[in-house]
Specification:
This protein has about 110 residues and is α/β, with parallel strands linked by helices. It has one domain: Transcription Regulator spoIIAA. It has three helices and five strands. Strands 1-2-3-4-5 form a five-stranded mixed sheet. Helix 3 (about 85-95) links the parallel strand 4 (about 80-85) and strand 5. Helix 1 (about 30-45) packs parallel to helix 2. The longest helix has 15 residues, at about 30-45. The protein is globular and about 35 Å long. It starts with 7 loop residues before the first strand and ends with a strand. About 25% of the residues are buried.
């Protein structure tokens, strides 16, 4: 799914009971709403696990961090997993103090 003129691209794939979302580009105020809506669509499915791959991101702003936090809070226990981004992206989660609040995996 291309979110038009926004600077993030969302790729979604289903494999068994796992729904995978890959994010590419910048997750910021301009793009967080589209990503939030896509996460809500996936959450409404019967997927037992949702994996969000952050490795294609080049930037995450506070609105992007909040969208991921909200998805984690909405999800059933253990349903959402975030695949770590680059060291620069992970640093953003550390600086905002939420790295231990989100379910990161390698």
């Amino acid at each position: 799914m291309n979110l038009g003129q926004l600077i993030v691209t969302v790729s979604r794939e289903r494999g068994g009971d796992v729904e995978s979302i890959s994010l590419f580009g910048e997750l910021d105020l301009a793009t967080a709403g589209g990503v939030r809506r896509e996460l809500e669509r996936v959450e409404a499915t019967d997927a037992r696990s949702i994996v969000v791959d952050l490795s294609g991101l080049t930037f995450v702003g506070s609105a992007g961090v909040q969208a991921l936090l909200d998805a984690h809070k909405r999800g059933r226990a253990g349903r959402l997993t975030l695949r770590r981004g680059s060291p620069e992206i992970q640093r953003i989660f550390e600086l905002t103090g939420v790295v231990d609040s989100l379910p990161f995996t390698d």
